[in-house]
Design brief:
The protein is an alpha+beta fold. The chain is built from 5 helices and 5 strands, in the order ααααβββββα. The protein has a domain of about 110 residues. The longest helix has 18 residues.
Length: about 160
């Protein structure tokens, strides 16, 4: 790989721009795994100026939205827990509390209201496709609402660059 010559400013900028990359065994699924280019709402504020909670929250939004884009009309996103008997919850909301807490809001298979509060150092989320609930016309899509909220927040914040 050839080394690219950069100015000091370009090197600092390249170092500060977050990147995402994924590879999939099925070439048709490769596009579904990709996260680049990252939206302006994520890259506008330098990573070093974000709390661990804000940075984790933004990346979770991208993963959830991307996952939902691959679901059919009979499925919605849920998350499973590793290392616990809690099972899964349908993701109905996500938030963060600076500097280091992520919160998931939702309901379990029985419809019981559920909230998970987790430190970013323990963050381990398994996204699952679950059948939409009986009687609902359309699956709930939280990823698109989260992404829109992320864009609105970025537009309301002056450029940090």
């Amino acid at each position: 790989m050839a080394d690219e010559i950069m100015t000091t400013a370009e090197a600092h900028e390249a170092d500060a721009i977050p990147r995402a990359h994924a590879v999939h065994t099925d070439p048709k699924e490769q596009k579904a795994c990709a996260q680049e280019p990252l939206p302006d709402a994520v890259t506008r504020k330098p990573v070093k100026q974000k709390s661990p909670a804000e940075w984790a929250y933004q990346r979770l939004i991208l993963y959830i939205k991307n996952f939902e884009e691959q679901l059919d009309a009979e499925q919605e996103v849920a998350m499973g827990f590793t290392g616990a008997q809690a099972g899964t919850i349908r993701i109905e909301g996500i938030g963060y509390f600076d500097p280091d807490i992520i919160t998931f809001y939702g309901s379990d298979d029985a419809g019981t209201r559920t909230q998970l509060v987790q430190h970013v150092s323990q963050l381990n989320v398994l996204l699952r496709a679950m059948p939409k609930r009986d009687g609902e016309d359309a699956p709930k899509r939280i990823g698109f609402r989260l992404a829109a909220d992320l864009e609105e927040a970025a537009e309301a914040t002056p450029d940090s660059a």
